[in-house]
Amino acid sequence: MNVPTAPNAPPIITLPLTVSRYRLRFIAQEPLRLPAYAGSTWRGAFGHALKRLVCVTREPRCPDCLLYRSCSYPYLFETPPDPAIALLRKYPAAPHPFLLRPPADTRRSLAAGEETLLDLTLFGHGHRYLPYVIHALDQAATQGLGSHRGRLALAAVEQNAATGWTPIYQSNGPLTPAPPHIPEPPSCPERLALRIETPLRLAVDNDHITPETFRFTHLFGSLLRRIPLMIAFHGAAPLTADFAALARAADRVPLTAVRLHWRDWNRYSSRQRNTVPMGGLVGEIELNGAGLEPCWPWLWLGQWTHAGKGAVMGLGGYRID
Fold first, then answer.
1. Smallest Cα–Cα separation from 296: which of 232, 249, 248?
2. CA distance 62 to 47
3. Euclidean distance between CA atoms 91 and 73, whole angstroms
4. pLDDT truncated to tens, each residue of the chain (321 aa)?
5. Sequence-ordered list of residues with C-beta below 8 angstroms from that of 26, at least 6 positions apart, any chain
6. Measured on CA atoms in the order 196, 110, 151, 273, is the torsion positive or negative?
7. Cα 251 to Cα 39: distance, rounded to the nearest angstrom
């Protein structure tokens, strides 16, 4: 993006959260049918496989385990808050340092030999555990996914770089990832389109935001909660910012166009033994850059972190044009 900025525009800040995106390529070993959106399926299978891989005490509850704050499983999948960080004391758990995003629609069946993809994003200190994450996802795929436990085999892993997707791993070969980077926002554009690609589920006072009630401050409020927590839990140090001033700035940002609709989606929760509604907003909004400058770095980074409920399983994903 290379667009002019307003005269005397304030300098663009860079939020200190390192990010890397990876793409795992799997080959179906037998006919396989995944749910319409497989993010929840992958997340659950990954959690079970990771615990089998790393748990050495076999305690039924992680908080009761001697290794609770040093084991990779709770850090990645349950992420206990650090009591030394005041910002986090009111939160029972931190945002996870990873995000899984399968293709937006996996409704069609896969024949044996067909390929399917899974995108993985790691944040901050989560990069230390890349080999564990890849191995656990490989094991989850080998065990089988979906209601009929269709098996897949990991064929390759690629990493997103400036030149595109670069191979970093093939079966039985070495893992050669590039260092993570901090996404640096370009200049704030004079106007932009933001395309919400996976359901964005937002609520205010337990009321879900609909296409008719959506305002920019709803999306930005979610980012203003999620990103500082990601940085505090998984970055080098907590972020210092005037959050109240940022919220006021977002409240003044108008939408120049709204083309949103509601997409229903339910996931099955094995813990609750019931289906859980996870539908949300998809579509496009357009914004004018005037007055957007304080919010711009957060909006840019949100393309990696996602927003709203279910971000860890790929919901609330958007891209900026």
1. 249
2. 13
3. 19
4. 444 444 455 567 889 999 999 999 999 999 988 887 889 899 999 999 999 999 999 998 998 999 988 899 999 998 777 666 665 566 666 899 999 999 876 566 889 999 999 999 999 999 999 999 999 999 999 999 977 789 999 999 999 998 899 999 998 889 999 999 999 999 999 999 999 999 999 998 888 999 999 999 999 999 999 999 999 889 987 788 899 999 999 999 999 999 999 998 876 666 656 677 788 999 999 999 989 999 999 999 999 999 999 999 999 999 998
5. 115, 116, 117, 118, 141, 152, 153, 154, 155
6. positive
7. 31
191-320 maps to which CATH number?
3.30.70.1900
Domain with CATH 3.30.70.1890 in the chain: 19-170
Q: Could you give the residue range(s) of every CATH 3.30.70.1900 domain in the chain?
A: 191-320
What is the enclosing helix (H) or strand (E) of 305? helix 296-305
CATH of domain 19-170: 3.30.70.1890
